[in-house]
Design a protein that fits this description.
mainly alpha, 0% strand, Arc Repressor Mutant, subunit A, Tetracycline Repressor, domain 2, 12 helices
């Protein structure tokens, strides 16, 4: 029986084209905002025909939403990966925090754009959040909450308000990247260089292990296991952008 490979190849090509457009768009929107961004500049950077942009995303707004939605979805997927892994509740929580940090480190353009949009809180933001609420945000946040509560019930984690704890953990990751330009000037060092990212990644996991585990020593051991299991990403988008 002859297998038709044309359709899978076309599908792969379409997905590749879509990814090129999204990457070029994340850079353009980050640099110039929604109003200042040019679809012509995006198609030129992606090296695709303008018709392909409109085929995949219909219009500029559709493309913008796809970039921001994609960024949030990637964060949620990485966090869920950690929460669904093996180990105790506390260990899974730390693993999710590491993977959440790594998503920011490996895709800074889209993450920065997402942060900008959340700060602006425009009409677009409300539409984006509405689209994410049921499909991504609510399930992931609920899973985080159950994991922390499981750790509390097992006597592994301190009795904390999991909503506040989660906000502090994920907020610390996001804030590090948001305030990096300020600290670069104040400390005369680049927080987003490889060494800076590695040190922050390790430090933040160890901090939460000490702060949230009932037994700080066991927390430190869990942090060490997580950092050993999840080596720092081999390549960073920020390194490419700085070349």
């Amino acid at each position: 029986m002859k297998v038709d490979t044309a359709k899978p190849k076309r599908q792969d090509q379409a997905e590749h084209t879509r990814a090129l457009i999204l990457h070029a768009a994340s850079l353009e929107f980050r640099r110039h905002g929604f109003d200042g961004a040019s679809t012509a500049a995006i198609t030129e950077a992606a090296d695709v025909n303008a018709s392909l942009l409109y085929y995949h995303f219909k219009n500029k707004m559709g493309l913008y939403k796809a970039v921001v939605l994609g960024a949030v979805q990637q964060i949620a997927e990485r966090a869920d990966e950690g929460l669904s892994s093996a180990g105790s509740a506390g260990e899974r929580m730390l693993r999710a925090v590491v993977l959440h940090f790594d998503r920011f480190a490996t895709n800074p353009e889209a993450m920065s754009l997402m942060q900008q949009e959340m700060l602006l809180r425009s009409d677009r933001t409300e539409e984006i959040l509405a689209a994410l609420e049921a499909g991504v945000l609510r399930p992931t946040i609920a899973k985080f909450g159950k994991t922390i509560e499981e750790g509390i019930e097992a006597g592994e984690l301190r009795e904390v308000d999991w909503v506040r704890a989660l906000g502090a953990m994920l907020g610390a990751n996001a804030n590090y990247f948001l305030t990096a330009p300020i600290f670069k000037i104040a400390l005369e060092t680049d927080p987003l260089c490889r060494q800076g990212l590695e040190e922050q990644r390790s430090g933040i996991v160890k901090f939460w292990a000490t702060a949230l585990f009932v037994d700080p020593e066991k927390g430190a051991q869990a942090a060490a296991r997580v950092l050993e299991e999840l080596p720092f990403p081999g390549s960073l988008r920020s390194e490419v952008l700085s070349m």
